[in-house]
Amino acid sequence: MKPYGDKSNDGKIQLSFTFNCKREVLNSAIKELCQSMNLIDTNVVSISSNCDFHCVILYASTNFDINEEVLVEEKVKENLDREFILKQFTDKCNRTIRVLGATTGSDAHTVGLDSILNKKGFHGDYGLESYPCFSVYNMGAQVTPEALVTAIVEWEPDVICISQTVSQMNLHIECLKNVIQECNNQKVDLSKYILICGGMRVTNDLAISLGYDAGFTKGNTAIDVVNFIYEKLKVKNFVLQPLMQSVSLKVKVKEKELLHINPIEQRRK
Question: What's the mean pLDDT in 129-156?
Fold first, then answer.
């Protein structure tokens, strides 16, 4: 088996990379790289230069086959459907499940977080706001660990969702660690919460190694997160911890329509 390009098993791949070198030696560097990777039929299609930095895109062919006999099939766990989980939460939980989400540090990306939390969701999979059993507070982007801890203490969530997209120099790992560290500094007992994180470079193994309960990445949608929350709460027989104070506010907006108000912002006003 080979990668597929123009026709089956032609071995065609696309490769992009950046070299920091003088323009005069760039072509030689590209050639040396391709030879070292055992690539053949190389075809450079784009070079974008900025001073001595050159972004290169090329097509090439691999000259080896992958032995299909040694490939391992992974078992893909089937998700429970939305209607079943919604009924379970509605019937068995003693109150609505509170979900707090934020993109922390200097990361300004919220697409991934919004695809999980916002009502419209992503790719036809509606987010947690569309579930009546969830009460969602999305703090948005560039939330400091200190502000996050304040929201945890004041809003008393059951689930905390941390999103990280920027991964240069492993910045996503540093930011995820900072959240754990600040919670420990402020004596926040993380065992009381379902703590999850997500991002393009986040894996479940990485998340667990950093102290999170689970990690989600590209390809995951809201139903994956909902299923994980279901499995965690199932262990606790769906019994949620009682809130220290009632902070869920509702105001009538239009006839038969309710809007959830962020209690923290409400108190500031």
Answer: 95
Q: Which residues contact 103 (CB under 8 A, 6 or more apart)?
A: 109, 110, 113, 140, 141, 142, 143, 162, 163, 164, 165
Rounded CA gap, 36 and 249, in Å?
63
Our CA dihedral for 112, 114, 117, 121, rounded to 10 degrees, sits at -90
Dist. CA 164–CA 110, nearest whole Å: 9
- Residue pair 13/61 in contact by the 8 Å Cβ criterion: yes
The CATH homologous superfamily to which domain 82-241+250-266 belongs is Cobalamin-binding domain (3.40.50.280)
Fold of 12-66: Defensin A-like (3.30.30)
Active site residues: 120
The residue-averaged pLDDT of 186-213 equals 95
| Assigned token pair, 199 | 């991002």
- Give the closest residue to 86 by CA, choosing from 139, 138, 115, 126: 126
What distances in angstroms separate CA 11 from CA 5, 15, 44, 57, 68, one per listed residue?
A: 7, 13, 16, 17, 15
